[in-house]
Structures are given as structure tokens and as C-alpha cells.
Amino acid sequence: MASIAASSISMQPRHALAKPETVDKVCEIARKQLALSSDEPVTGASKFSDLGADSLDTVEIVMGIEEEFGVTIKEDNAQNITTVQDAADLIEKLCRAKGA
Fold it and tell me: Where does the sequence pass through the membrane (predicted)?
């Protein structure tokens, strides 16, 4: 029974984590869009909502990401982005698909 419960709550493994430089660039985009001071911590684990982003800010962050990385993020994918890491992982996935 314990193994069933454990397997039902386990998270799906990530296919690939983004490169640190991609995470750093998304942090920069979020910091600029939200006008955060340089001493405000922004990491891969940072949730955009915790950084003070509302829905319009999030849309503008996504637009900044699209411009910076030359990718197009579909609305259904954009709605699933809650953290810097989510955004960076999606960028890596889109860049790989674009290069394939």
C-alpha cells in the first residue's frame, strides 16, 4: 500500500534542465520587467507571482523571453510557466525543437 501511495504522488521526471546561462538570462528579463533591485534575489526557483508579477507582467516577461531567444511560446505553454526554471526549461525545449 505504501508503494502505491508513493508512486501516485511522485512527480514526473524533468526531461532536461535548462543551462545555467538560460536561467540567468530569464532572471535578468524578470528583474528588468519587474524593476527589481539588484539585491532582490531571483533564482530558478523564484515564482513570478512571489516576485510581484501580475498577469500582465507575466505576459510581458514571456514577450521578453520570445524576443531574447527568438522563440514563440504558445498561450497554453505560457500559462504553465510559474517559475524562472519553468520558463528556462521551456526555452531549452523550444530551441532544441527549432534546431532539429
Answer: none
Known catalytic residue: 39? no
CATH class of 20-98: mainly alpha
**Cα 18 to Cα 8, 25, 35, 52, 91, distances in angstroms:** 26, 11, 24, 23, 8
Instruction: Say if CB 31 and CB 40 are below 8 A apart.
Output: yes
- Domains of the chain, residue spans: 20-98
What's the Cα-to-Cα distance from 94 to each of 51, 83, 87, rounded to whole Å?
Answer: 25, 17, 11
Stated pTM of the model: 0.81
Q: 3-28: per-residue pLDDT in tens? A: 444 433 434 444 558 999 999 999 99
Closest C-alpha to 23, from 91, 75, 94:
91
